[in-house]
Amino acid sequence: MNNNIKYRLEFTKTDKMIYIGHLDLLKFFQRIIKRAKLPIGYSWGYNPHQLITFALPLPLGMSGLGEIADIQLTRRVECDEIKNMLNSVLPSGISILKASEMDFHDTGCAAAVAWADYSISLNKKFDDIRSTVDSIMEKEEINIEKVGKKKTRTVDIRSLIRYISVDNGGDVTVLNCNIAAGSQGNLKPDVLLKYIYSSMDEEFDITKTDIVRKTLYTQEKGVLVPLCQEERSI
Amino acid sequence: MLKEILLQVEKPARYIGNEINMVIKKAEDADIRFAFCFPDVYEVGMSHLGLQILYYFLNRREDTYCERVFAPWFDMEEKMRENNIPLFALETGDAINKFDFVGFTLQYEMSYTNIINMLDLAGIPIWSKDRGERDPIIIAGGPCAYNPEPLADIIDMFYIGEGEVSYDELLDIYKENKKNGGTKEDFYEKALAVEGIYIPRFYDVEYNEDGTIRSFAPNNKKAPSVIKKVIVKNMDEAFYPDRQLVPLIETVHDRVTLEVFRGCIRGCRFCQAGFVYRPVREKSTDRLIKLADSLIENSGHEEISLTSLSTGDYRGFKELAETLIEKYADDKISISLPSLRIDAFSLDLMEKVQAVRKSGLTFAPEAGTQRLRDVINKGITEEEILKGCKLAFDGGWTRVKLYFMVGLPTETDEDLMGIVHLSNAIVEKFFEIPKEERKGRPISVTVSSACFVPKPFTPFQWTAQSTVEEFDKKQKFVKHNMTRKQVKYNYHEPELSSLEGVLARGDRRTGRIIVRAWELGAKFDSWNELFKYDAWLQAFEDTGLSKEFYANRERSYDEILPWDHISIGVSKKFFIDEMERAKAEQVTPNCRRQCAHCGAASFGGGVCFE
Q: Taking CB atoms and an 8 Å cutoff, what residues of chain B touch A27?
């Protein structure tokens, strides 16, 4: 048991910063936290590391507007001060939107995350994509083959989709969706897109697609609650 | 478009900049735009100290915006060529062919084809004579610039020496000339007055029938006949950045680099760095501790490296190391100490700085016998090495790395066998420890041999390099005799070293080989998997130049060497004396024990006046 205080950070990862992967992001945060001189807690053991956990890796190439990380500090710091200290040393593309103090016994973000909102701009406008999406939503079960390192297994991705909506108001089709994210069940947006494209007999190319992860949620008694809420009572 | 490409290449963060401490300026407000080019991949270039220093040095000028450019990896190059994207600078993403200066740092000869490739990718003509008023001025510096001749028809001007000294003057002249509507030719003429600047177009070379140089002379009255390197006299007063660019992706060295001193007192006869950076000039311990603080604070790095050619020779080493260890113990900042001589003190220190990781210990005896070590003036004895190993084994280290060279002047089979004997003696040393104290830990000795490359401005600058076949034979001989199972022997492929031997001592004509090899597909030559030896052999054939003439020929003392118009402050007479002492197997004491009157005292500072 330690006396650390846990904080939850909500941050963006956009623009040039989408080109760094998760491990580099972790290293980046460790340096930024040192530069900001936050009283970060360290793990025990031979190779002590900073106590920082990310809710869910964001794949290289995707933007995040509401990414989540939990950190432990060795003493209490005002939430706004944490936010300002970090933002003052961050290069463009990553900024802290919010820091909030957690109860020590709150579930960590990595264990809590269950669903995510994505906004996906496709490479062009697909006029009849709505029917494809409708047919997906009408199905009870969609089994796809998932090729793993050792074996291929069948996964039902339908249960991992809460909704998909189509916005054809602009130059290209935008899909907004809420899909499973986290250790309990995870649907990568590119897996979903590949399925949608193949249903339309179209070629999917992730490099021509803009994927934005907007919000991460946990599920409490069947209800989705954002991991970083507007107000928290401690 | 760029996003689509970046998502198709390996490590796209190589091409985006945006690192912590990147300098952001308004490009349109800068009078001088300078592209600092490192002719290798991002992760290598970003670990280079010279880049970090010059980047902030040039950017401290309000009128100058210095941006970085690295060699795009081949996957990116392919995409750039496919989509007609010219080589761009990381800070602004602007194409560099509209910059005022494009500067290359010459760290190793085998990066030269990358320079050609980068010029081509930038849309800049490769040969200096083909460039016009609208093309940037191509400038180059760094250790390989001490023999500028292989690139003399490609680079417009060379900077000989340390960047902190003359760049301000040079840029002021450039700005003034540009403001007054002067041409590039006007600028070059004015730049002749700047110390340390060598502009090849103002010099003509003539050759003898046997291919050696008959004459080398200025063709302009203002051009100095000898260009002397410029160096910082007082390291405490010299500019040093208080911050460092912190990459977003893992690079070769992710750490704060604190330069402790320049130069080296040792005078190993094969080592170019040991001579071209003379005399040794130290920073004071106070200054270093202050710099360490700000560098760590501004970077967030968890490791600081005390860098120099031989950090253990720093006079305040003990105080500095102990102060830093104590200071940073609570901040989880580790200290790395490269190039240490192994003795009781340094082992004790290493124990403190790497409390957990007992990584390998490294020795560089360079040669297998005492005789040959005397020839090369490597002042380390077998007894010292074995004593160091004993101390290390007692302290719990069990991995030893040994570095040697093959093909050194006067080398015989006996010297090669010496490599085997010394490696075996180290293993024996380990088995002297009583079995119960070894606790079942295995010993491993890794022996690596490199192929000796004679370099300009060393006593060995006149010697013939071994041929590829000779290198092969020598290394196989060592391999054949290295039979103990505790010893692992690694050796280098000699082809690369052989080409390095050509370029290191090349003359003005060798530039044609470089360009031809590049045309035939050579680039990233120092990357094993991309090295195309056949392209180089073809290039020799196509240009009619001889590889043996440059690499495997012994020169006489009175031959005009291609780099004779450059002065590093160390006299040719000294090098001749040293070569003769080498032949006589005589060692020369280090600078602190006894001055050898090499000539470096002419700079009026450093170890010569301690």
A: 250, 254
